[in-house]
Every structure is written in C-alpha cells, then in structure tokens.
Amino acid sequence: MASARVRGGAVIGAVVLSLLAVPAPAVGREAPVAGAAALPAADLAGLRGVLRGAGRQGAPGAMARIDDRGTVRRAAVGVADRSTGRALADRDRFRVGSVTKTFTAVVLLQLAAEGRLRLDDPVHRHLPGSLPDRRITVRHLLSHRSGLYDYTNDMFARTVPGFEAVRDRVFTYRQLVDRSLRHPRTNAPGAAYAYSNTNFVVAGMLVEKLTGGPVGRAYESRIVRPLGLRDTFYVHPATGIPGRHARGYLTPDRAGAPLVDSTRQTVSWAQSAGALVSSTRDLNTFYSALLGGRLTSAAMLAQMKRWVTVDGTQSYGLGLRRRKLSCGVSVYGHTGAVQGYYTYAFTSGDGSRSLTALANTSNNGAVLNSLLGTLEPVFCGKKAKTRPAGPVRRYEDIAPQVPVTAPQARLAESAGD
C-alpha cells in the first residue's frame, strides 16, 4: 500500500448500505433543512485518519473530494493501478454502482413533471404484462417497496465465481426481471422497505418505454449535458471505462486469496440500477444540483423526499437516501457497490457542501466498517460522534440478502442505509 497523499484535506468514504426489509414503513415529508453556512468546519484531520484506515484495511486506493461553496478539498491514498503503482488521483473515473439509481429516479421524476406518467401509476399501465402484480406502482419501485425479489442474491452468493459468470454477459432487462420472478415476492406492494436492484431495472424499462430510446441517452440529454458533466458515461454493454480511471479490485471470499482485477466488465447485471461511470467532481455537481432544485421541479423534489423509515437514523425516498448525523444534520445522496468499487456520495440539505468518496475495492467489510464514519467529520466537524468499536454484521447493495461474513474478518456495521 502506498503512503497517504492528502491535498487540502478530505477523506474517502465508501459504504454500502444495510438493505434488510423492515416493518410496514412510515412515510414522512421533509422537515426544513440547514444549508452549509450553518455547518461546522469539516474535521480534516479526522477525515485523513479514516482515509488511512481504509488503506490499512485492504483498499488498494481511496480518495474523496469535498465541494463547499466554491472551495474544493481533495484527499487520496494508495494506488489506482496495482500493476503499475500509479497513484490514485481526483481526476480518475470509476464505476459508481447504485449511485446510478438516483440518476434513474431523476429521469422518471422529470418525465412525471412533463405529464408522461404519474408516480402512483401502476407499472402495468406503461409496461403491460411485465409484472405479475398489478398493484405495484412507479412510486413503489423508486422507494424499494414493490416486494420484488433481488435477483443479485442468487448471482453473487459466491463472490468471485458469480462475478466471473457475468463479467462478459449482456442481459436484457426482461432476463433480469425474470430471474427475480422465479422467487416469491418479499412483501405486498407498499408494505415494507426491502432494497432490491430489480426495482431499478424495471425503472430503466419505464425510462426506455416513455422516451423511446436507450436509458443512456436519457441520462445524457437530461442530466449529463445540462450539468456539464465531463466524466459521466453509460457505456453498457462495453466493458471499458473511458479515459483515465481507477482499476477496481474484488476481494475473494476465501481468506488470503489474491484480489481480482474486476475493472473490465459489462455491468449488464445492473444496467439502470448500477452501471454508470463518473468522478468525484461530477457526483458532487450532480447531488448539489439535485438538492439545489436544478434538476427537478420543486414539486417533484418534494416527492423524492417523502421518506420511508429504514431505521432510527436513516430513511429512503425515491432513489435518494437521507441520513441523520449525530450533530442533528441530515445529508442526502446514495452509496454504491459494483465489483471492485465502493462509492459514497452525499450533500447537505441545500446542496452547498458535498462529499464523494471512492475506494477501489469491494466485498471488504473491514473497509466498509472503517468508512462508515466518513460523513460525521465532513458535516459535523470535530464534534462528530465517535463510532462504536467492534465490527458487527452488515449487508451490501450487491446481493443485499447475502451477508458479508466472517472468513476474512469482513464484518461491518449494520447501521447503514
């Protein structure tokens, strides 16, 4: 592991969330939120400590960027490429995993604002015969309350063999949905939050049906070009990442086995649920614009922030996560996991302070456990709550019902969103 390189002061955080179903959800509207002007200064020393910890616990490289009212702080540790030893840097692109879900939700909210659909429309109104339960609505998909089983539980029950089986595969949306429908639904529509990639595969089907074109074109025309994002691409089914990028490394299930370079892949198993490529700068720009009201109408942003309770500190809206921190501040964004990459992207209530972090490893609960506290130093400052010692069980965005287990001491904190 290369020594830490810190520029200005920031930190990585790459946490993927606890995705277990919970009892029938309480849905609430957003309370007033404070902007960055009310936030304490970020604890940069604390952030550097988290960054170095991720490196010690197995991340080949990790980095973060903070954008705060025009001030940019960057930090990096380790390498982007283990074979060449090239240092990881802020300009490296990477696969963002489930952060893609927020992009997909934004497109559907824009289409709703244009009158192309309603959030409470049954999915079968737009995709006749696609799902066996006609009660499932667009809102249910975007809030993970459809009850559709997550097909990735089967795909990735064994981490490396599961990945190698799909690395070069190109799936249709229908094939992925059919894999889900081999299983009973996890709950009745609307009854409970239960994270499932299947929801956002169906959401991608809706985008393509309503726009008459591929989902990547919708991202490009509705988000990427309007925001001037220079590093954000939907390359599916191509297997490469354009331009300078960090290589991704998948941790095998067997303790002591070498990391697997998982950079080259179609990510066809995820598509509109997790196949975007981006950068720390672009993701900060995206979430800042979203919470600042520049990507949706005010009415649609309010719908996006109708929260379903996940646990005592976390809630899920429509493709958007909210986490309440120890200092009382709430932050908004998403996390992502795709083989070889953990991404963590959140912003303040008005979008004026944003953090995106990346670790180029996955299936490593020690890294997850280390990085869970990233938000506290960034948004709560030096009075951030100290995380409890000791690892506990945790689940991931990939195969959410398959635990990250003990053989490699890869247990991680269960209080993710």
Strand tally, please?
Answer: 16
Unreliable residue stretches: 1-24, 388-394, 405-417
Biggest sheet overview? 11 strands, antiparallel
How many H/I helices? Answer: 13
- Strand-residue proportion: 15-25%
Average pLDDT number = 87
Shape: globular
Order of helices and strands: EEHEEEEHHHHHHHHEEEHHEEEEEEEHH
Distance between the ends = 29 Å
Percent helix: 25-40%
Structural class: alpha+beta
Radius of gyration, in angstroms, nearest whole number: 19 Å
Structural overview:
It is a single chain. This protein is of the alpha+beta class. It has 13 helices and 16 strands. It is 28% helix and 17% strand. Strands 1, 2, 3, 4, 5, 10, 11, 12, 13, 14 and 15 form an 11-stranded antiparallel sheet that branches. A 3-stranded mixed sheet has the order 8-7-16, with no helix packed on it. A hairpin with a 5-residue loop joins strand 14 (341-347) and strand 15 (353-359). Helix 2 (100-113) crosses helix 11.
SSE order and pairing:
Elements: E1 4-7, E2 27-28, H1 44-56, E3 61-68, E4 71-81, E5 86-87, E6 94-95, H2 100-113, H3 123-126, H4 138-142, H5 152-155, H6 159-166, H7 173-181, H8 197-211, H9 215-227, E7 249-250, E8 260-261, E9 277-278, H10 280-291, H11 298-304, E10 307-309, E11 314-316, E12 321-324, E13 330-338, E14 341-347, E15 353-359, E16 361-362, H12 365-371, H13 375-380
Parallel strand pairs: 7-16
Antiparallel strand pairs: 1-4, 2-10, 3-4, 3-15, 4-5, 6-9, 7-8, 10-11, 11-12, 12-13, 13-14, 14-15
